[in-house]
Design goal:
Number of helices: 21
Strand order of the largest sheet: 44-45-46-47-49-48
Radius of gyration: 30 Å
Oligomer: single chain
Strand content: 25-35%
Mean pLDDT: 88
Number of strands: 53
Shape: globular
Amino acid sequence: MGRRWSSRHRVAVALALAVLAAAARAEDGDAAPPGQWCGPFGSPAYTAVARTPPVAGPVEQAWVREGSERIADVVVTGPHAVTIERTGRGRAAIRFLRVADGTVDAERSVKLDGRVHVAQWDGTVVVGDRSGQVAAYRARGDVVARIWQTRAAAPIDALNMIGSEVYVRAGDRIARYRLGGRLPVWTASGAFRGPLVLRGNHVYTTFYDDSGNASVEVRQRSDGSVAISQRIGHHKGKIPEANAAMTLQVLSDEVHLQYALAVPISAGTTAEACRLPRSVNASTGQVVIGQAGLGGWDGERTEFDTQWVGLSRVDGGAIALTSSRDDGRLDIIASAEVHPDWVQGSEHPSRTGDVILVSGRAFDGHSLRVAWESEEVGAYRAIPARGVVLLPTAPDRLVALREQGAAEQAAIVLGDVPAGSVRASLVDGRTLSGPATVDVEAGTLSIAKQSVRLSDVRVATDAKGTPFLAGPGDAAAHGAAAMADAGRASQLAKLALAAARAFDVELAESLIAEATTLGAAPSEVAPATKKIAGIAKLSRAPARKAAAADDVLCQADAVRAEGCNAAAELYSRLPETAPADIRFGVLDAVLRTRPDHEPAVAAVRAMLPPDTPVASPFVAREWLIFAQAIGQSPVTILQPPESDSPDLTPSQRTLGVLSHTWRKGLVGVQSEQILVVTPLERPGAVARCLSMGELVCDRLEALFAGGKSVRTARSPLTLLLYDTQESYREASGEGTTEWTSGHYSPRDELARLYLPEDDAAFRRVMAVFAHELTHQWLAERCPLFTTASRKDSSKTPGYWVVEGAAEMVEEELFDLERRTWRFDPRARSITVVTVLPPDDLLPWELVTGASSAEFRELSRDKEVKFDSPRRLGHTRTIDEISRFYVQSAALAHYLHHADDGRLREKLISFLAAHYRGEPPEFEAHFGMSPAEAGTRVRQWAESVTKDL
């Protein structure tokens, strides 16, 4: 059988929750789709953001391409990075490089003149140059095919694209084209300058009147009409040249613009840039732009949630890498004094997921923790691609980094290779057919007298469509759809002619673009193109035949559905032994394209336990995540019992009480070790939380597996999940304000957790959950002591072991998909004890000897400063309570991991003794004084972090 791939390379389902969480606030074009990088700023909105799964590091070089000079920005489409490389005077090659290994899959020689602009969307690459030529290309096997072209009357100065819409600025004219359309959908004339930026339903540009007054102009994408024109400054009658360099970024809450010419502010002073507030009406999509704030330009930003990360001038005029805050102030991430290396080459940050890429380095945007660093540092923008980060370090050099040890994903063998002819869809877009053999050891598929790597196969099926090879779920789904593309392309070409005959030119051109993108030959779309040209020659446009055009629309929708139907059919034919990743990934790919696809929705419903209370409307992708999670940790759905129900289980009784004391509509979701009580309004998040809880419990079971069990009964741990922070705080009561996300209540024998809306915050809550669940598991399920033998330890020395163990588990790296955990040498506690001067640490005698009551007497006000090499941000402060947590966790890590776990059993026995209220004296138990333990902890921490 084939090999499995790492969870960090599984796409679709692993990111589904993040996509769903962002859906409510997402705007069209705000970020590049997964696996894509659409232009110089990554997305049509120029936010430098993509939704591709991040490379979280540490990294190694995957490949490097040198010697060929690039004359345009690199774009990424799925498995390929597309480069335009100079081959001679006035000529260049458009090359599709495989992001996995850098090999050239397809190329085409073209004539290009002067400065070249490039944009990309879903595999279609549009190129424009100084001659005014604009052409669209797609890879067809080892050939790059030109699928559309037009020519403007002036040099191309700006280019952007989204879907089948192409936006061009040529001199003083902007136009919107549709792929396949001979004429622009609309045009506008005037002194437009800078890029064309697409976000939501609008195109943003900069406009100058005859007096040199500059405005940010916002036009409707549909018809080019002006929605907003906001004055941003004047140039005393001067208007920049048409090709003048400008920067315009449209973030969620702000518009950032760098002028081509400085704007006078007052006598002798000028502004280089401006920032304008921006808001969008959620119901109407109407955009509001406020007054410009003029100032200096420090560099480009990348959007992060509703804020941004980029360069700014700080006190003294120095440049620092900063992030914005909700209150309008800046947080300094790096400067000339702290983390100076991060300021070098940080002019062009980019982002994917929570990871901010700064040249050849990356950090987590929330925690500011360094994810990875490389030697490839320079003034360029890092580009996220599937499985790698691309670094265009120089015009003639392109470097790809991948996570250390990451293997190229390959299709998995699902069954015997069928006799007779089979079909295979490849990542380069080709479909091969013929007799086939598979060599798993060599990792190859031989078909149609060709040998292809299994990593090149999206899916392979027999004559009936039953798969015997499949890549990751989304790849397999797209492969099934691609096998149907040839037929769909021909049908859409015929429908384009029918639309033209109905005198609906816009629909006809749209269908031509779609058919061409799917691979229709020029001869197939020629009849429709000829008909459209004939209509254009008429002195008076004929009236649209509404009934005929509407019939074409319905037929086109049916043809489009065939791709989803092919993927859904593939799902139905997957063998029961097919890996869950493939099954869920195929369904997710279908639902991502057609959320209401009836067979896919029905398949998701069939996965749910029979008594699952499903709310209306049924959001299939959210429930798909629930189904995936309960597949990892099987669950039982509990409804509140009737008041007179006899013989209730403890879980039913708990649910019944909470239904009266908390709120109506609660549901119990019980796995082997966890009972989650919650309003089941966000099933994906609930199930993922349950899956995390089971994994933490498994980790703790393994940790305590060596001792003698004295606990005879262990009920599921009860967790209350709140859907609002207000309800969580109200239930938690006063005195728990420091527990902003979750806490364990020993008195109530349950944990409370708040589920934030966005996925990034949810992942941070999972760390809190692991910490509090460790407290709960130790108190209620640890096999080394019973509930009856557990004593009130508020005055018992050695409280460090309670918080140290919980913090140690919190700092471990949990992989929900592979169901594994591992030690993290970048853990906060390990970092802090290596960088904090010994005199600034709490005395180790105090840490190891304090009781819970003495711990709570430590101060929040007595702070010391330190700089962390593995967390960005200016000088940090840490109070006494936080130092206690850090030192306790570092001590627990040392006792657990150092010297191949030589002291691990002593750590476990000390912890159990503390819960029984009878901890031994520290030095006698561990064979070292507290001070000596502190020295060893620091030396060990330095040894595990020295190579990071």
